[in-house]
Design goal:
The chain has about 325 residues and is α/β, with parallel strands linked by helices. The protein has helices spanning about 20-25, 30-45, 85-100, 115-130, 145-155, 180-190, 210-220, 250-260, 280-290, 305-315, and strands at about 50-60, 105-110, 135-140, 160, 195, 200, 225-230, 265-270, 290-295, 300, 300-305, 320. The strands form 2 sheets. Strands 1, 2, 3, 4, 5, 6, 7, 8, 9 and 12 form a 10-stranded parallel β-sheet that branches. The longest helix is centred in the N-terminal third of the chain and has 15 residues, at about 30-45. The two termini are about 35 Å apart.
């Protein structure tokens, strides 16, 4: 491969082969970033960043054993369990997020999969937030097709369900569900007409090949996810991954650049782990094709840069929040 950039007329590919993704990861850093930045400019305004806010609407007591997660019942992390929030509480948070510039409001609940009563309560939240004029996203664990359809009927725009890692590394991270469970949920979400938000976590002790395989899986789904969150492991004391050797920052930037190259039209989101990133590292990520972040000092239960720091960074870089989508333009549902 060389660093040449094609045209927007080039087909969006879902037929990448593993060797091609390996070759991208092996490119010289400057060549890879040149390619990714050029692709990014074909599809997006490089000065705009889509702003989301993520709220934990039900915290802790999750039966899964995800090795990175402080909300698992399997680990002692000092996190206090909190029941499902009320609709009014969620709307209050959504209004505050909108006032700070967020255009998408994401709701996360620590479930293996939601029960019917819980799903109905969350559907009410989604409708109320959608009525504020914000895009909505939810992450609630595994879903059936009928559950996904109910969420779509309530006004949900996106459903987040990350693959977390490569399939071959997955059992090192989670034993309470299998990789196919995640893929089945993504299929149910697509069948219901919802847009997919799906990415992974890097820095969990995986090899480069695992990052290759993760992005290959994402880029060869039947349709690229609308949003691809790339998380850097947040190490929480009490979880099995606490003490993992930190990831080389340039490897994180490289992963962002490969994700942008493989999935040109997707929003590539800098998600968890930004408190550990320097401003310079984040600037490199934006140059490499990242164009979405979470506003707010919490991502579910872990720390996130405060809004003022993010606003100052974007101003220094000559960047601005992406405007909200209108009913007549842009990122509309199918």
């Amino acid at each position: 491969m060389n660093a040449a950039v094609g045209s927007k007329c080039d087909a969006i590919r879902t037929d990448w082969i593993l060797d091609e993704v390996q070759a991208l990861f092996a490119e010289p850093f400057s060549d890879l970033l040149y390619r990714a930045h050029g692709i990014h400019r074909l599809w997006f305004d490089p000065t705009e960043v889509q702003i989301s806010t993520l709220l934990s609407i039900k915290t802790g007591a999750c039966p899964e054993d995800c090795a990175y997660c402080p909300q698992s019942i399997h680990y002692e992390t000092g996190l206090e369990d909190e029941p499902l929030l009320s609709v009014d509480e969620v709307v209050l948070h959504a209004r505050a997020a909108r006032e700070k510039g967020a255009t998408r409001f994401c709701m996360g609940a620590a479930y293996r999969s939601p029960k019917s009563k819980q799903l109905e309560q969350i559907a009410e939240m989604i409708t109320a937030v959608s009525d504020l004029g914000m895009e909505t996203c939810a992450t609630l664990g595994m879903l059936t097709v009928d559950q996904a359809k109910r969420l779509e009927q309530s006004g949900l725009d996106y459903y987040n369900h990350n693959l977390d890692s490569s399939e071959s590394y997955y059992r090192n991270i989670i034993t309470t569900r299998c990789y196919k469970d995640r893929l089945d949920t993504l299929e149910a979400v697509r069948e219901a007409g919802l847009r997919v938000c799906c990415g992974g976590i890097i820095g969990m002790g995986e090899a480069v090949q695992d990052r290759v395989e993760l992005l290959h899986t994402l880029a060869t789904l039947p349709e690229h996810p609308g949003s691809v969150p790339i998380n850097q492991l947040v190490q929480v004391k009490g979880t099995p991954l606490h003490g993992t050797k930190p990831l080389d920052p340039l490897e994180f930037v490289r992963t962002i650049a490969v994700a942008r190259t493989l999935m040109p039209r997707s929003h590539v989101r800098l998600s968890a782990g930004r408190t550990e990133m320097s401003d310079e590292m984040q600037a490199l990520c934006f140059f490499a094709g990242a164009n979405s972040i979470f506003y707010g000092d919490k991502l579910l239960t872990t720390d996130n840069p405060d809004v003022t720091r993010d606003q100052n960074l974007l101003a220094r870089l000559g960047m601005r929040p992406e405007p909200a989508k209108t009913a007549s333009g842009g990122d509309s549902k199918k």
